[in-house]
Amino acid sequence: MQPLLAAGQDILLAGLVGCTLMAGATAALQGKRLLRLQRRFLWGLLWLQLAFLFNGAYRMAEPTGWWPWLDAVRLTVLHTMFGTTVTLSALWSVSWLVAGWMMAGRRRSVPPADASAGRSPGHGVAVFFLLLLSYTRAATGHAADHGLFSLAAGVHAVHILAAGAWAGPVWVSRLLHPGWGDLTPSEASAQAHRLSRAATVAVPLLILTGLLDGWRTLGPAAHWGSTAYAWILLVKVGLMVLAIALGLRNRWFWMPRLAAGDSVAGHGFVRILAIEAFVLLGVMTLAGLLGQSMLPA
What we know:
Shape: globular
CATH topology: Formate dehydrogenase/DMSO reductase fold
Helix content: over 70%
Largest sheet: none
CATH class: Mainly Alpha
Distance between the termini: 24 Å
Number of strands: 0
Radius of gyration: 20 Å
Mean pLDDT: 85
């Protein structure tokens, strides 16, 4: 159960990164639809964080009733790194929801002409909470062995953010514009370029931090080649290579045609994007599984 809950958190956190990066790309990505999607991701993340905490406490203590289980949760929160970081993550999610409600009330009280001037304050709030959530999420995995405030946790937090910056925009684009049929050619081209720019920054950063993570987790191991951890990692890397190849296909083949106004290019781009979204879902699921698997000795 814990690996699935961990993977779900990574997927929803990536969705929140995607909402932040894709805001304003099209009309649907700057209005109420995007805010509703962001709120659903955030509520889902909060519930998974609580389930992750309660299930983790149950696995540690294996209580025989409700009261012993609640006492196990209390002890987990107060006396373990796992409990502390997951509780902090849930606190960040609640704080973000509260901040969103406060800003929504402020937007209703501000005249439209004033409310639309400049960058939305919600963007800065989103970036702030994404940094906090990524760091505490990183500290619930193997990086926690080096301490809450450690270079390992910081590197893995960047790895989580980079993964979200790659997968999140793809998923958000697919959810709000499933077939891109509602987009004009110029909007489709602009959205494709936004996705490409996000991946161009995220993928090299993801590879670099992934190599550092791999050196930290596998470097001390004497015999890791035949372990389950290594095989899961190998499948994850293979899926990443496939996703990169799909992205390059879109960038080099379909994007120039989109920019030229080719009406068929949009359909071709979306088909590749749908496959890439599914492959990235597999990558994130395996990442959650790796974070909860025993490291090779």
